[in-house]
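Regression test case RT-17, inverse folding.

Input:
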């Protein structure tokens, strides 16, 4: 892995980011929601998957309330969430759904790119399972 950049990149939060994150958090506590529709994940993975997604959404919400949230902090939270959820997502479709959820989180806080993290998450396991 490449070394981290020494400078932190402050981001400007979209004006309605916190409200949208709170709404997503409430929806996710009930069901995995991706792009305004419930995800179809294996029944045995749903409670654990939801727990990780709720925690990630809570982390993003907490960071969005800070004075100077940084892109690096959000990406670190993304990395942690992907590491926790990776063992729960066995198929390419599951991983794509999870990646879509995390892309929604990034979009809500105004981060356009995961810098390859989501693609690597989807592709690494997809190729390993073949």
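Golden output:
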């Amino acid at each position: 892995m490449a070394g981290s950049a020494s400078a932190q990149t402050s981001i400007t939060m979209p004006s309605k980011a916190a409200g949208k994150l709170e709404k997503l958090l409430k929806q996710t506590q009930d069901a995995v929601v991706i792009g305004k529709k419930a995800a179809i994940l294996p029944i045995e993975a749903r409670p654990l998957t939801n727990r990780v997604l709720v925690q990630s959404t809570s982390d993003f919400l907490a960071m969005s309330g800070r004075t100077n949230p940084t892109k690096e902090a959000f990406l670190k939270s993304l990395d942690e969430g992907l590491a926790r959820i990776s063992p729960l997502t066995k198929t390419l479709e599951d991983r794509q759904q999870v990646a879509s959820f995390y892309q929604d989180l990034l979009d809500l806080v105004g981060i356009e790119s995961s810098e390859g993290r989501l693609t690597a998450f989807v592709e690494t396991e997809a190729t390993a399972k073949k």
